[in-house]
Design brief:
By secondary structure, the chain is mostly helical. Helix content is about 85%, strand content about 0%. The longest helix is centred in the C-terminal third of the chain and has 54 residues. Keywords: Coiled coil, Signal.
Length: about 120
Amino acid sequence: MKKIIATTFLILAAMFLIQPLTVKANTRYCLRYEKESKKYKKEVGKYKRNVKRYKNVVKHGRSYKSIMKQYKKVMKQYKRVMRQYWRLEESRERMLLEIRVIKIPVYKFIDKRIRLCGGGTSAL
């Protein structure tokens, strides 16, 4: 009987402690990347405007070529951040799905075990 209760506790601990923490961490990372991607979007917008403005003109000693170089650099950074963000978002979605899938059978399993013990929820 002690073994049965111990196993139910282990299952509960695995469900309620480990998985939600990883989801929370993933959510935090997603927010961080979302913030970073917004920053890069802003920078990309700025460089797009600059490129339009300087299209065939040289102003303040900066050529069209140098601005295009900066613009490409920022676009590269932006794309990298967005890739990381989407990867994290996918893993977070997968994690949430796993939790939804895992919870149902585990609860059924615990209910059976409790009924076998001959007690209600107080058996825990």
